[in-house]
Amino acid sequence: MPFRALGLDPRILQAVQEQGYTEPTPIQSAAIPKILAGQDLIGIAQTGTGKTAAFTLPILTKLAAIIGNGQQRGTKALVIAPTRELAVQIEENVRAYARHLPLRVATVFGGVGERPQIDALRAGTHMIIACPGRLLDLMDRRCGDFSGLNFLVLDEADRMLDMGFLPSIRQVIKSIPRQRQTLLFSATLSKEIELLTHEFQQAPKLVQIGRRSNPAETVTQWVYEIPKHLKPSLLIHLLRDPTMNMVLVFSRMKHSADRIARRLDQEGIRTATLHSNRSQNQRLKALKDFKSGDVRVLVATDIAARGIDVDGISHVVNYDFPMQVEDYVHRIGRTGRAHAVGDAISFVTSEDHDELRALERFIGRGIVRKKAEGFDYTQSAPPSEGDSDRRRQPRHQGGAVHHKAGNSSKPKSAPQRGGRHFKPR
Ligand code: AMP
What we know:
The protein is 35% helix and 15% strand. By secondary structure, the protein is of the alpha/beta class. The strands form two sheets. A seven-stranded parallel sheet has the order 3-4-2-5-6-1-7, sandwiched between helices. α14 links the parallel β12 (315-318) and β13 (342-348). Residues 21, 24-25, 28, 47-53, 309, 311, 337-339 line the site of adenosine monophosphate.
């Protein structure tokens, strides 16, 4: 079905065409007519399926009719997203799709000065993309006019639950009209999400794309079994391959993300980091440099990287194996987005085998094991390359690494968020 058959505003169709989209993705074909018909919607879709446009394009079409020549004031559409990066990204998409409309858009999130956000709210911005905490704070202080709100979107609802945003979201929803259209997007349809839809939606239609929680089909997945101390050298070795030109590396902990980045920089590999210890401006700059190709590698932790949409990521590297299947799905969904293809590489140490097996059971297939050609698996660790808890471990001499039972690489303090864990179920 072509875009023009979906009933979108012609100015939005023009913008979509200028983005180079030739046809709607499956979630767009399924969701857009339902949203245009005024229905509440639950969208279950992997990242990279085009879900942002799936809700933005029909909302903009309806907003275009409501705001007329743009003189209309008051916020008509509110999108709530879990992270600042995702909010900024949605805003970028909205601006691109709304470029031929007289629409005012703003983002609202913490970690940056609130004055411009307050001004935008007071100016009667038509569409707000917000993270729950700052939004609630500003609403409590009576900034903005939400009394005429028509559309509410909860994006990445599963992650917002995991991050403990439900009380804030409830508060926000108390202050907006009951009569509205509510769209909820999530990677998975858990019991908790179903409860949420009963609470916030009216007779929602379900649109589910692809098998539940299954990694995007366009991503080729590999596993490298590797002693833990060789992870840094293996990463450097793999990065000699010039086809790894835009690489997103996932580390479990913030400090190990910094350590990996320092190591790559020492090797002359331009690298940026994205995690919650970095300031908002540093995070935005890291993303910008990665998108523009100024840095080749971005090392990120899960929460910071959630939902980031960068075109053309060639490889995702799970430097640390993820703790939850959802994280694996989200991580590898960073590559192979929309109609592109990509590779996802996981480093698996002897301590990750249970998790790997649980993941393979979950996705219903085995992941191919690979050996890095020309890589010396017998080398010992260089002194500066410690992993996160290496200082607490005996130093390994030679190639063999013996992991004692209970000497887990998993940080004891790592957050155990809700959701499905790899641990034996
Ligand atoms: P999302 O799942 O919303 O994060 O979108 C993933 C990527 O797909 C983004 O880079 C979009 O710009 C892109 N995209 C969205 N819709 C289409 C489409 N119909 N054709 C090609 N690319 C698209």
